[in-house]
Amino acid sequence: VLLELCQRIYDASWSTALRESQYMFPLVESLHVLSLGASVGLVLWIDLRFIGVALGRRPPGVVIGALRVPMLAGFGLMALTGVMLFCSEAVRLYPSVPFRTKLLLLGVAGLNALAFEWRERTRGRVASSAGAVPGYARTAGWVSLLCWIGVIALGRWTAYGL
Amino acid sequence: MGRRLVLAACVAVSVVGLAGSVVAHHSFTAEYDVNKPVTLVGAVTKIEWTNPHAWLHIEAKGPDGAVAPWEVELGSPNTLIRYKWKRDTAKVGMTITAEGYLSKDGLKRINAKIITLPDGTKFDAGSSSLSSTR
Question: What is the ipTM of this complex?
Fold first, then answer.
């Protein structure tokens, strides 16, 4: 059923146009990588703050607050261009193991961020103090860091080994 | 000053990104064997004018002597257009000659270097194998 859906997406006029385009495809690819820098590049610093490697004197709330808007904007563009690229190659990507693993890690990274956010809003104490964060925030930082490294590596693997 | 720096960084990043995504995509050596050059002659059965790479499907006699469907990998549409290709340069039914390198994983697939049309016109296939000889 999913493969059928992929075939239908692949055959749609707009995804075919992107697949057969001279400039649009490399442009969308470039925007995907650029927005990756603007989103994952910022997440990296938040993760490093949590695991105790960087920005230790600034309260996490200050770090996150400063980066949140460009980070979310980057995620939005990355998701949009990612979906476009997927649609243009849906049938070829569907069976790809690195691509499936990448989606899985994306899911884990997303759930990890949401879970942390939820915990923080209900009873969190991470935001305001300088220095080391509690264990659960440190874990969230590690999970996020490793997931995103995996996502990027698997994205490259998908493109180069397809 | 700060704003200018940000702008310069944005431009630099997009130029690098664009160059990277246009030039690269597959690593040739991971998929094809540069020590196994192949020349195939056969009729085109299908043309896929697609990103990231275009494909010609031909019915050709392989190195083992058997006639079979072969997949011929070309460059991206953008690269092909730069090498003077048009979407109808190769047509279904046309007998073409494809020179390239054999796939490493045993598939009937080559990475083309040069495509020759029935009238003798040669087209650079714009594929990644050329980066080593260009």
Answer: 0.74
